[in-house]
């Protein structure tokens, strides 16, 4: 089956790759013979007006189109303010020159709806708009799949949306926020076929929009415009499915979008490891296997994911209302319930400078989470002289975590030396409240303005922990002994943070501005704990309690000189910073730290023309130690993994230099993005690890000189018109140096991480959507403790996907991934082939869909994760869903027939 699937995909891809191509060229002008730049030119299928290929004109009005079929197509040229031009073209195996095409003025000017109906791509100022009818989507696709088909837009491995090389911060629907603008919720819960237009907007800051003076701050947002027949009436979808091995899912969403009011309801439940949302922090500590040592990791760790078996329930409600133009309020509530359980095997090689040992553990985990999330915002930009924005939210999170771990320690000779079995139950309740107010005011003189803001964040966390452990040491020797302990620990953490901001901008001479800003930040961390430990073996009890606080006040003033022109933006200056920290235990003498800093900062940006941007940024940052790093309290909840702090730690000083390049040319279909960052850290805070003969691990922290790292992310994507394909090359590179003290010996660690990716896909996706490629991850980690420990880790992934629209009603798609893990630390080479397939049939005029999905056809029900830290290598293999099939049905609510 595997060979057949791969050969089918490759044969279709090669056939599409080497189809004979034909080229069409010409020039577009207005009636005065002036070239029209950024005019849209497109070849359409005369039968159904679907797009075959498209491009835009350059500054001289020139265009070039390439198609692989020898047939009659409809040529269309259009631009805002002009009447569209149409001409039937018969493509042959030769170049066709249409010479000069003159577009006539359109007095009435097409409105936005008409433009969306005929123009596949439209470019104006800071906005790029895509007509969704030009991009093939399946009947049941969400807009997440739609975005993946747009040029210059992608969804990376972390689920982040990246447009033109920059992360998308917020997503709007009909120009209004939807579920707090959280991209993950929007992308996973709206149908692609409800969208008529997608706009990628390079949005200026609120201050720039009010004053008209660029302050160098922008964010990329995406706005989805609903189809006309989906507005002013309710629409949505019901879907459900049942499958083998008692698998099931159910989804419902309903939306009512009126000009003034928007209401949406979302509901999901399933046991097929799909969360359906990605609220920030929702995936933290999902597996229950984190030992809080991830901060020591020398390699880029993957995001937490749900391995094992997961049951999910999700409910969400959004309400938005516009009081008048540019004045609106939005609120949403989201509830998540998850139950995640399973088994995992951990294999760890630890080096301690005196001896090395292996640790193996079998972990049985079962975690439950109930998360309530309420967000709201009020925005008023109706007055041309000022604007006001208020945002806030409430979060309540209740978690119950259980882990039963059976661990074994093996000495250098491979003999079992110690066993450590423990059962840990944790009840964790967290609540957070936040509010932020921003006020911008434009003053009388052009360019003169000020803004003031205040934000407050209050967070409470409580932990109730019970742990029972049985540890047997010196197995097989006359000194063999067993110790059984029971620990009960009640912990409470509270963080209060208040931030005040004031900024004033004064115009100097033409294009020059003085900007003065001041901030005051107050952070108060409080910790309270009570612990009772019963040594069952020795029949005694120990009680322990503490109250610890960390109070930090930061005052800073920035003086900046800004130069602003059409192509250049220059900003430079200095920040004067005063950091006061007071911390310690109650009933003990307070520890006080006061420091003053002068931090230079500068930014240079050059935009020679549309679609090209270069940015160089330098900043010095001061990073205070975190509360767990300076605490004077010993945390021995796990008596064999003890953590404490160092109250004498100094602040870290970071010098960060970043260079960004964004090049996006629609005419040549070229996209190139680069992000290069160099960081030098003084007074680096490092881990100080000691491991005794009983394998008890104690960790604290120290300052250890300078460390540095260099990180580079590159991406190149180009369409080859003659072959009708697009290739994408990506590279991520990380060079870093770090240090750690292991049993009082300094361990210098050098890390090199490389990631390469290559992908090919066809350009014309009206019937077939084919992708194939490979990625390679390399990690080289060198340790000064022992050269024999130097690690080389390789991950190879090969993938191919095939999506065929067999007819207007029938769709078939499949995806194959083959992953191998090679590591000189672990002798076994892990191989993981994954094959999924789906076939769907839309059997009614409303596109109600019957769908059969086959998951993990080869039944490789595992998840593999490897990492390096300052003193150990680790591999975790977690069981997950294996092969299953699920049959589902989707029903559209108020799905009007499409307009021709």
UniProtKB/TrEMBL annotation:
SUPFAM superfamilies named in the record: Carboxypeptidase regulatory domain-like (SSF49464), Porins (SSF56935)
TM ranges: none
Protein keywords: Signal
Residue ranges of domain Outer membrane protein beta-barrel in the record: 442-775
Signal sequence, renumbered to the chain: 1-19
Protein name listed in UniProt: Outer membrane protein beta-barrel domain-containing protein
Organism annotation: Allotamlana fucoidanivorans
């Amino acid at each position: 089956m595997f060979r057949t699937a791969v050969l089918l995909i490759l044969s279709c891809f090669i056939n599409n790759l080497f189809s004979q191509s034909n080229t069409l060229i010409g020039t577009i002008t207005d009636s005065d013979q002036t070239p029209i730049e950024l005019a849209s030119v497109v070849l359409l299928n005369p039968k159904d007006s679907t797009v075959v290929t498209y491009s835009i004109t350059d500054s001289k009005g020139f265009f070039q189109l390439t198609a692989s079929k020898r047939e009659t197509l409809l040529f269309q040229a259009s631009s805002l303010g002009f009447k569209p031009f149409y001409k039937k073209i018969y493509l042959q195996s030769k170049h066709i020159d249409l010479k000069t095409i003159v577009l006539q003025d359109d007095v009435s000017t097409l409105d936005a709806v008409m433009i969306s109906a005929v123009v596949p791509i439209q470019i104006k100022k800071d906005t790029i708009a895509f007509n969704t009818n030009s991009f093939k989507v399946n009947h049941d696709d969400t807009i997440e799949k739609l975005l993946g088909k747009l040029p210059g837009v992608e969804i990376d491995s972390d689920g982040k949306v990246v447009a033109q090389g920059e992360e998308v911060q917020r997503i709007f629907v009909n120009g209004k926020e939807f579920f707090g603008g959280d991209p993950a919720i929007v992308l996973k819960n709206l149908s692609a076929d409800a969208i008529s237009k997608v706009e990628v907007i390079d949005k200026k800051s609120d201050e720039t929009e009010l004053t008209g003076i660029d302050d160098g701050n922008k964010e990329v947002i995406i706005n989805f415009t609903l189809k006309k027949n989906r507005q002013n009436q309710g629409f949505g979808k019901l879907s459900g499915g049942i499958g083998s091995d008692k698998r099931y899912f159910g989804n419902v969403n309903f939306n009512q979008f009126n000009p003034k009011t928007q209401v949406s309801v979302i509901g999901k439940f399933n046991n097929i490891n799909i969360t359906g949302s990605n609220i920030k922090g929702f995936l933290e500590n999902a597996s229950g296997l984190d030992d809080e040592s991830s901060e020591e990791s020398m390699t880029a760790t993957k995001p937490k994911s749900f391995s094992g078996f997961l049951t999910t329930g999700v409910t969400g409600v959004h309400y938005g209302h516009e009081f008048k133009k540019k004045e609106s309020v939005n609120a949403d509530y989201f509830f998540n319930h998850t139950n995640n359980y399973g088994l995992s095997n951990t294999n760890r090689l630890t080096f301690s400078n005196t001896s090395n040992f292996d640790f193996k553990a079998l972990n049985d985990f079962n975690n439950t989470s109930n998360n309530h999330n309420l967000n709201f915002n009020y925005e008023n930009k109706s007055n041309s002289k000022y604007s006001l924005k208020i945002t806030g939210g409430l979060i309540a999170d209740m978690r119950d975590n259980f882990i039963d771990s059976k661990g074994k320690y093996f000495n250098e000779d491979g003999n079992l030396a110690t066993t450590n079995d423990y059962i840990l139950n944790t009840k964790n309740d967290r609540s957070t409240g936040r509010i932020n107010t921003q006020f911008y005011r434009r003053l009388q003189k052009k360019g003169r303005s000020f803004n003031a803001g205040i934000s407050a964040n209050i967070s409470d966390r409580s932990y109730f922990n019970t742990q029972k452990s049985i540890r047997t040491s010196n197995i097989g020797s006359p000194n063999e002994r067993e110790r059984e302990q029971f620990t009960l620990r009640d912990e409470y953490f509270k963080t209060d943070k208040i931030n005040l901001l004031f900024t004033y901008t004064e115009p100097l001479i033409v294009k020059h501005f003085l900007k003065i800003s001041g901030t005051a930040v107050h952070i108060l961390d409080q910790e309270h704990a009570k612990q009772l430990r019963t040594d069952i073996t020795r029949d005694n009890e120990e009680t322990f309690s503490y109250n610890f606080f960390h109070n930090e006040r930061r005052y800073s003033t920035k003086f900046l000189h800004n130069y602003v022109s059409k192509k250049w933006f220059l900003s430079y200056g200095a920040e004067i910073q005063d950091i006061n920290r007071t911390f310690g235990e109650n009933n003990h003498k307070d520890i006080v730290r006061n420091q003053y800093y002068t931090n230079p900062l500068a930014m240079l940006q050059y935009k020679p023309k549309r679609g090209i941007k270069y940015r160089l940024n330098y900043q010095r940052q001061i990073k205070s130690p975190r509360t767990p790093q300076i605490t004077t309290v010993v945390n021995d909840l796990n008596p064999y993994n003890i953590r404490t702090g160092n109250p004498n730690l100094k602040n870290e000083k970071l010098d960060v230099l970043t260079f960004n390049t964004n090049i996006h040319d629609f005419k040549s279909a070229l996209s190139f993005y680069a992000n290069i960052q160099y960081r030098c850290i003084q007074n680096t805070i490092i881990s100080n690890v000691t491991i005794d003969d009983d394998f008890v691990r104690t960790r604290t922290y120290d300052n250890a000189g300078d460390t540095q790292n260099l990180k580079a992310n590159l991406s190149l994507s180009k369409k080859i018109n003659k072959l009708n394909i697009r290739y994408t090359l990506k590279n991520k590179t990380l060079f870093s140096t770090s240090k750690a003290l292991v049993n009082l010996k300094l361990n210098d660690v050098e890390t090199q991480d490389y990631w390469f990716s290559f992908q090919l896909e066809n350009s014309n996706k009206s019937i077939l959507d084919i992708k194939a490629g490979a990625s390679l991850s390399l990690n080289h980690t060198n340790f000064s403790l022992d050269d024999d420990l130097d690690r080389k880790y390789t991950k190879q992934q090969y993938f191919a996907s095939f999506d065929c629209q067999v007819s207007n009603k029938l769709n078939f798609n499949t995806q194959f991934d083959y992953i191998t893990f090679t590591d000189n630390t672990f002798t076994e080479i892990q191989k993981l082939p994954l094959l999924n397939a789906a076939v769907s049939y839309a059997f009614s005029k409303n596109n109600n869909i019957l769908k059969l999905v086959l998951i993990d056809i080869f039944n490789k029900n595992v998840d593999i994760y490897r990492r390096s830290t300052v003193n150990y290598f680790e591999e975790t293999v977690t069981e997950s869903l294996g092969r299953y099939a699920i049959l589902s049905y989707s029903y559209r609510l108020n799905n009007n027939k499409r307009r021709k």
